[in-house]
Amino acid sequence: MLQSRLAFIGGGNMAEAILGGLLACGYPLSQCVVTEPLQARCEFLHSKYPGLQVLSGPQANILAVNGSESSSHTASLVDAGSVHINPTAASDMFPPAEVVILAVKPQVLRGVVSDLGETLHQRQPLVISIAAGIETSAIARFMAEGASSSLSTSSAIASTGPETKAPVTVQAQDLPPVIRVMPNTPALVNEGATGLYATPDTTPSQRKVAESLLGAVSKQVSWVNQESLIDTVTGISGSGPAYFFLMMEAMEDAAVKLGMDRETAKELTIQTCLGAAKMAQSSDDDLKTLRVKVTSPQGTTDAAIKTFEKGGFRELVAESVKAADSRSKSLAVELCGPSIGKDSKL
Ligand SMILES: O=C(O)[C@@H]1CCC=N1
Questions:
Q1: pTM to 2 decimals?
Q2: How far, in Å, from the CA of 187 to the mean position of ligand 1?
Q3: Most informative mutation of 109, 180, 188, 234 for ligand 1 (most atoms within 8 A of CB)
Q4: How many A from CA of 324 to the centre of ligand 1?
Q5: Which atom of ligand 1 is least distant from the CA of 241?
Q6: Which atom of ligand 1 is nearest to the CA of 182?
Q7: How far is the centre of ligand 1, averaged over its atoms, from the C-alpha of 149 (Å)?
Q8: Which tens digit of pLDDT belongs to each residue from 42-82?
Q9: Whose CA is nearest to atom 2 of ligand 1?
Q10: Helix spans in the chain (H)
């Protein structure tokens, strides 16, 4: 497996799922650094992954991407008590990240990426975003905003006075490449399904890196060739586990109403869902044929399926998937403004 130096920006569930999957595949812990603002979560990550570098505090993200090569920088952060490094790793110097995984909530992505703009511009790592809804063009715009404003500030400081100050604009081609991915929570049990979209300026080897990182926790890794289809991936597999949980909840409740105890109803429901998924995965039959094979004419399944169809089940599912797809798109507009255009970086 490729063993690039990884910086996870954000140490939540999805970052942990990817990290855990990589470690289980033999990825070296020493090649990973995680930043996390919440103290309790840092402590949890420390105790679960002894030796993992977990950074916190205002400069943690920059340090994770830049590496600790600038020792004065690291020392001042440690002295200020604002960075938590696992004691076993505290004395280690670590190199800059080759891959940066943006694993923060979409709502805070703009601030995080903008603060990292100058560092990303200088270091040129591969950037992989798992933030729902946020387009690669918006991520590039946030990077450019951050990089341009730091460069403008430093050029102003270097200049002799305000009259010589000129705003600096970082160009699209000078920004690191971005791959946008949508994994799902079954990644936590190594059963994830992930969709990926790469901007045209990514190289085949960068796409391979993204695929193997996400492949560590995903049984299904699918590339889409238009960015808008990542919203559809979100509508099916990103949000999809919740649809199946809802279906299972409803089946469990229905059996309880008919007199079954809840535990039995739950176990039968879960195993039925798992068994159906395994059959669908291993069979040569398509989904419709599998359904028809369970359904004896005028039998029990027939009675249930007719009730589903009469109630508009298919239309409801189609509407629900479309609602998630649309929400992914509107989330992007709410957080980043109108789309700048397909595949455009800035
Ligand atoms: O509900 C959400 O917004 C996220 C995206 C995919 C799964 N959860």
A1: 0.85
A2: 14
A3: 234
A4: 9
A5: 7
A6: 6
A7: 32
A8: 999 999 999 999 999 989 999 999 998 654 444 334 433 34
A9: 239
A10: 13-24, 39-48, 60-66, 71-79, 106-123, 136-158, 204-215, 228-233, 240-257, 262-282, 287-294, 300-310, 313-336
The model's confidence at residue 148, banded by pLDDT at 50, 70 and 90, is confident
| Separation of CA 70 and ligand 1 centre (Å) | 37
- Widest distance between CA atoms in the chain: 88
CB-based contacts of 343, cutoff 8 Å, min separation 6: 136, 137, 199, 200, 227
Mean of pLDDT values over 298-304: 97
- At residue 118's C-alpha, the angle toward residues 122 and 4, to 5°, is 50
Mean pLDDT of 249-274: 98
- Mean pLDDT score across all residues of the chain: 88
Residue nearest to ligand 1 atom 3, measured at CA: 132
Mean per-residue pLDDT, 29-38: 95
As a whole number of angstroms, the distance between CA 137 and CA 134 comes to 8
- Vertex 106 angle, CA 60 and 117, to 5°: 45
pLDDT average, residue stretch 165-170: 68
- Contact between 17 and 188 under an 8 Å Cβ cutoff? The reply is yes
CA dist 181 and 191 (Å) reads: 16
Cβ-proximal residues to 19 (8 Å cutoff; 6+ apart), any chain: 8, 32, 34, 49, 52
Provide the pLDDT for residue 112: 96
State the DSSP code for 51: T
Residues with CB under 6 A from ligand 1: 132, 234, 238-239
Amino acid at residue number 49: Y
Dihedral sign (CA 240, 323, 111, 143): positive
